[in-house]
Amino acid sequence: xxxxxxxxxxxxxxxxxxxxxxxxxxxxxxxxxxxxxxxxxxxxxxxxxxxxxxxxxxxxxxxxxxxxxxxxxxxxxxxxxxxxxxxxxxxxxxxxxxxxxxxxxxxxxxxxxxxxxxxxxxxxxxxxxxxxxxxxxxxxxxxxxxxxxxxxxxxxxxxxxxxxxxxxxxxxxxxxxxxxxxxxxxxxxxxxxxxxxxxxxxxxxxxxxxxxxxxxxxxxxxxxxxxxxxxxxxxxxxxxxxxxxxxxxxxxxxxxxxxxxxxxxxxxxxxxxxxxxxxxxxxxxxxxxxxxxxxxxxxxxxxxxxxxxxxxxxxxxxxxxxxxxxxxxxxxxxxxxxxxxxxxxxxxxxxxxxxxxxxxxxxxxxxxxxxxxxxxxxxxxxxxxxxxxxxxxxxxxxxxxxxxxxxxxxxxxxxxxxxxxxxxxxxxxxxxxxxxxxxxxxxxxxxxxxxxxxxxxxxxxxxxxxxxxxxxxxxxxxxxxxxxxxxxxxxxxxxxxxxxxxxxxxxxxxxxxxxxxxxxxxxxxxxxxxxxxxxxxxxxxxxxxxxx
Length: 548
Hints:
Immunoglobulin-like; mainly beta
């Protein structure tokens, strides 16, 4: 302020100092301030006027030019989408060497050029007049997503741009890890690789879990096929779950994902084995069991399975006792009892019956059955096998011999018949033996005539053998059947009741009659012994001879 005052004072009186009053000095001060402020206001107003004028000049200079307008920008032949937005991206499954075509159009009074950038393949040269209004890119079509950009510029450097959204995907998606289950007798059971199962249908799921398309268009559906004898690839829904029918055999199930463009991904394999057939049963091997049996009894059977093989752990033998030999289960009150069962390499399964007092089981039935399991869970239960517990004792004829072939009736001659009774074990009780005779040409109404009966004393069979000698004569000529019987009244319960009799043939001649060759016998001058051993007819010993 002091400086300003000094200046004013110098201007008023340059080179001369004139003293002024206090009021005069204040007046001069206010006058200087007014002049300064007015000059600043005028300076600002001039700058605003300059700026407004410049903007007006610029507007006037461009009023005759416009920005190009893009009327079209597209890519030809997308398989999916139209490319107008990222959500509607135009997708292709083109090979790397294929071609892709972009087309454009625009309006402007003086278009200079159009250019394409961010497209797959090599960037094409700008399109200049005369315009082709397209770019065809050949080769270099790498997979991926692209946002091709169109730029149109006029001669005044005015620019318009437009963007497309495209993708190239020729690789199929990966498939999720399949989960396989089946209905195992009402229980849903998970299948592991290489399992043996018994079913006609499996359920697959989780094919969509963890599936990826590596930036591609995305998975759409799934497929499967069964090797070696399937019907080719079959569809599975986008849910990644389905029921699949299977046949018996060692199978490989293949699964793959398919994307929205139809690209098929690599397959994953799942091995499993299906066996829907029951095991085979090849019959029992059982020794004879009698009331005299004292040792352990080994019973066995053979089995086989052509697919999964026999599950030896779950294959068992059961037994029980039945009183009447009828029905499907033991009726002695104890039911079925499981025996410890072992198997050899030939699938012969064996078990030991021990601790049974067989002499108390006479004429009862040992009932056996086998439950056979294969490794797929198929089970076969055999029909019950009935084994009669036979009496231990068996008495039979060892030998029977006549001392001559033919005798004359009425001459007092007799036949002498020597026979031997044997027993398979010592027998202490008494029993009888009988000699009987009947005409050889008899009919069904003729009965056997008992000639003699011998009582075998108590203790006679302790040494297992007893000898008997019979004598008899014929009252009339002709051919006669002779038989000897042991225990004719069946008082002894024997192991074999069918070996208690023996048969022979003898001939008698009347008076001075010359006896010729006995009808039905081979002619011979020598003794001929004929032994008929068929179990369905009597055992006979025949003699034929020639008498003069």
